[in-house]
Design brief:
By secondary structure, the protein is mainly β. 14% of the residues lie in helices and 49% in strands. The longest helix has 8 residues, at 14-21.
Length: 132
């Protein structure tokens, strides 16, 4: 398993920050990595909502990942599971468990925003996943 968390102080109230990070259609813009291409979402986001993103990762190539909102608690937390395709075609045990989230907390200057992810390697294909 590996994970990463970044925090930033933003001079804006949580409601304004929430309006940006909870707009899933803007996630390609927010990541800044260029890995997320087309993103397809219909309707407002809520717990259980799903969307798809076309992604291109140097070590893995191009693929489409499906995501599902698992926590929707405005203006405090947005979390989702991302379901990339199997690392080994046709092998469901080679799908990584990927969770992303934004957590917001009011502070003296405005909002502390935490953006994080956690990846649990699949039961099969974990060595290939390390390159990812």
């Amino acid at each position: 398993m590996w994970q990463r968390t970044e925090r930033i102080a933003i001079a804006a109230p949580p409601e304004r920050v929430w309006a940006i990070v909870s707009d899933v259609s803007r996630h390609a813009q927010l990541t800044g990595s260029g890995e997320i291409g087309a993103l397809r979402v219909s309707g407002p986001i809520a717990k259980g909502s799903t969307w798809e993103a076309d992604e291109r990762v140097r070590a893995a190539g191009a693929f489409t990942a499906r995501s599902e909102c698992t926590v929707f608690d405005p203006p405090r937390e947005l979390a989702w599971k991302s379901y990339p395709p199997p690392i080994k075609a046709g092998n469901p045990n080679s799908v990584a468990d990927v969770t992303w989230w934004y957590r917001l907390a009011p502070d003296v200057a405005g909002t502390t925003l935490e953006h994080a992810f956690r990846v649990v390697e699949p039961k099969s294909g974990g060595l290939l996943m390390k390159a990812f």
